[in-house]
Amino acid sequence: MARPTQEERLQIAAEMITNATGLLFTAGAGMGVDSGLPDFRGQKGFWKAYPSLARRRVSFKSVARAYTFKDHPRLAWGFYGHRLNLYRSVTPHSGFGILKRWGDAMADGYGVFTSNVDGHFQRAGLVNGPVCEQHGSIHYLQCSERCADYLWSADDFSPQVDEETCLLVNDLPHCPQCGAVARPNIMMFDDFHVLPTRQERQALELKRFLDQCQRLVVIEIGAGKTIATVRRFGEKVARQHQGRLIRINPVDFEAPPRAIGLETSARSGLEAIDRLIGAS
Fold first, then answer.
1. In Å, what is the CA distance from 9 to each residue of 98, 177, 212?
2. Does the pLDDT at position 280 exceed 70?
3. Which of 232, 210, 206 lies closest to 220, judged by CA?
4. Which residues contact 204 (CB under 8 A, 6 or more apart)?
5. How far apart are CA 189 and CA 182, in angstroms?
6. What are phi and psi of 68, to 5 degrees?
7. Rounded to whole angstroms, how far apart are CA atoms 185 and 200?
8. Model pLDDT for residues 206-222, shown as the tens digit of each residue
9. d(Cα 162, Cα 250) in Å, to the nearest integer?
10. In the chain, how long is the greatest CA-to-CA distance?
């Protein structure tokens, strides 16, 4: 039996969404690439985004360690401060709006599960369903010493970063309770101090949504195989809830049985499906 063409698979995906009562959007780094965010997959991709660290042969793993906030706090905040400024300045691409429109039309609503820390789902208006940020959010701060289970907004912190050195040049943020250097509430490498408070609450909210959903479709976008947590989570949810899975990825698009794999980028794939839904 011949494998369905890309157009045929797009049509099947459109029909799956039309027949659903609830949608789960699962997203990896590929979701943000179409917004202009850098892709850190592999050391070359990281050094391309941060040439000052490439010149010093500083790896992604070494700068994105929790202990860097203790050993080299200005370097740690140079990296994460640059990312915070980038995520604030970049506009989420049109695919987010498509997901919001689809989700808002569902009888059972929608939920989000993402490894991205940029906060772009909320910024794009996907706030009517639970958003589970698996690795945390760069828009919240915590104490680097974890003196208490306390988080606060990063809105009042405006990092100034010297891009030639990737170092923070203005004042470091500090914990308002103990005075230690503050850090983003993000899961890092070798991280024993991240506070899971928000993620645990978000996971419970997502579970409540999934448990009441009648006909679920999981739409996975830009989640690769290198760190396959997002892929595994979506596949598991689809199995447990007798749902269907749509996988959108320009490279790792192979899908398990009863799932549809689309060889395309995030925005292009979502726009192509949306046109078919609109034409039906």
1. 19, 54, 28
2. no
3. 232
4. none
5. 17
6. -65, -30
7. 13
8. 999 999 999 999 999 99
9. 34
10. 66
Closest CA to 138 of 120, 163, 160, 112: 120
Residue with tokens 């050993």: 71
164: left (phi over 0), alpha (psi -120 to 50) or beta: alpha
Do 229 and 217 meet the contact criterion of CB atoms below 8 Å apart? no
Identify whether the C-beta of residue 100 lies closer than 8 Å to the C-beta of residue 195: no
3-state secondary structure the chain: CCCCCHHHHHHHHHHHHHCCCEEEEEECCHHHHCCCCCCCCHHHHHHHHCHHHHHCCCCHHHHCECCHHHHCHHHHHHHHHHHHHHHHHCCCCHHHHHHHHHHHCCCCCEEEEECCCCCHHHHCCCCCCCEEECCEEEEEEEECCCCCCCEEECCCCCCCEECCCCEECCCCCECCCCCCEEEEEECCECCCCCCCHHHHHHHHHHHHHHHHCCCEEEEEECCCCCCCHHHHHHHHHHHHCCCEEEEECCCCCCCCCCEEEECCCHHHHHHHHHHHHHHC
Please check whether residue 111 is in contact with residue 210, taking contact to mean a CB–CB distance below 8 angstroms.
yes
The amino acid that residue 132 corresponds to is C
Owner of token pair 């192979």:
254
**In Å, what is the CA distance from 6 to each residue of 99, 200, 250, 261, 273?**
20, 38, 12, 9, 11
Using N-to-C axis directions, what is the helix angle for 94-104 and 266-279, rounded to 10°? 40
Cα–Cα distance, 60 to 37 (Å, whole number): 16
pLDDT digits (tens, 9 = 90+) for 72-111: 999 999 999 999 999 999 999 999 999 999 999 999 999 9
Is residue 110 within 8 Å of 218, Cβ to Cβ? no
Q: 58: left (phi > 0), else alpha (psi -120 to 50), else beta?
A: beta
